[in-house]
């Protein structure tokens, strides 16, 4: 089942590994690092997981038109239509890059690093899994938290990629003036290493994304063009983030509005009837606790159930009634005879 615990666990591991690759690849390319020892072993382990996930996909149910299908033929057809070509391409990229890193020369390893840029496509996997999480039985607050986490993740990844790109421009980028922004920090970069260079580049990116500015000065046309692109991206990303946050807050407010109106009417009623203070406080506390526990809806009140197929409605009805029926001795005996 695509929503079983095992499948969810694999999805979460996939999210972690996809994020790891999106973080690692820009750093390797920008600083021209080599994957050796432990990191090369991790790269092979990551490839093994993606290969396992590729095989597992052919054995995982798929939703078509909102209905779950577990037939192998349907699964294969849907996979071929959607992610098969991309997954095969990424597996080939992983395999070739790992082989070249293991056996190739310096120039070949550079080509392997360039091949790894295709791994950025796996960021779509994170978005797809987060969208899948929104179908879980969670509250409005949890949904808002998941959406906020997705936005924060995308923003962090964008800053990370821009940070590595800014460093690459400052070290190996074309220059029409003969100068680069890294010229002012050469001694510091040589003394402090990769970490200091990364933090300095990240400082420039965050400064532009927040429109705060930094002490780093552009020295050529390429760097100035990158700075302009960063400012435009900051403007678009900032307005998008504000709109998403506003929409999420409005959704939460709408869900709480009916409860607030109910409590307000209750207080007005208690004051109108001159109910004693201790009893009024007890009544309000009980109502507030019932609201905090959540509203209990009967299936007749959920109009969306009528849009389900007959088979799905029957399965849903069985899932709703089975816990109550299983408490009766007769049905427990029946289930033991015919499980």
TrEMBL record:
It comes from the Eukaryota. Keywords: Membrane, Transmembrane, Transmembrane helix. The keyword Nucleus does not apply. The chain crosses the membrane at residues 12-31, 37-58, 144-169, 189-206, 226-250. One of its GO terms (cellular component) is plasma membrane. GO terms for molecular function: voltage-gated potassium channel activity. The keyword Repeat does not apply. This is Ion transport domain-containing protein. It comes from Zooxanthella nutricula.
């Amino acid at each position: 089942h695509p929503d079983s615990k095992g499948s969810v666990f694999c999805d979460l591991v996939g999210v972690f590994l996809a994020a790891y690759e999106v973080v690692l690849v820009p750093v390797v390319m920008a600083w021209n690092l080599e994957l050796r020892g432990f990191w090369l072993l991790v790269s092979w382990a990551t490839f093994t997981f993606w290969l396992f996930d590729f095989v597992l996909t052919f054995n995982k149910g798929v939703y078509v038109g909102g209905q779950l299908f577990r037939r192998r033929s349907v699964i294969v057809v849907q996979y071929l239509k959607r992610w098969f070509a991309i997954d095969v391409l990424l597996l080939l990229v992983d395999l070739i890059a790992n082989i070249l890193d293991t056996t190739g020369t310096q120039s070949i390893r550079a080509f392997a690093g360039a091949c790894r840029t295709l791994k950025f496509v796996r960021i779509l996997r994170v978005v797809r899994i987060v969208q899948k999480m929104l179908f879980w039985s969670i509250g409005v607050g949890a949904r808002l938290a998941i959406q906020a986490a997705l936005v924060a993740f995308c923003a962090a990844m964008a800053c990370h990629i821009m940070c590595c790109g800014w460093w690459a421009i400052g070290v190996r980028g074309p220059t029409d003036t003969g100068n680069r922004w890294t010229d002012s920090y050469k001694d510091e970069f040589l003394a402090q290493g990769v970490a200091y260079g990364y933090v300095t580049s990240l400082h420039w990116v965050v400064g532009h994304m927040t429109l705060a500015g930094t002490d780093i000065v552009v020295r050529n046309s390429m760097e100035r063009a990158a700075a302009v692109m960063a400012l435009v991206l900051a403007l678009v990303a900032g307005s998008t983030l504000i709109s998403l946050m506003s929409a999420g807050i409005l959704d939460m407010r709408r869900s709480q509005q009916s409860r607030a109106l109910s409590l307000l009417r209750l207080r007005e009623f208690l004051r109108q009837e001159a109910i004693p203070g201790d009893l009024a406080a007890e009544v309000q506390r009980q109502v507030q606790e019932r609201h905090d526990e959540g509203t209990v809806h009967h299936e007749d009140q959920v109009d969306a159930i009528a849009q389900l197929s007959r088979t799905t409605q029957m399965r849903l009805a069985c899932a709703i009634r089975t816990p109550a029926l299983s408490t009766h001795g007769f049905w427990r005996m029946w289930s033991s005879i015919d499980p």
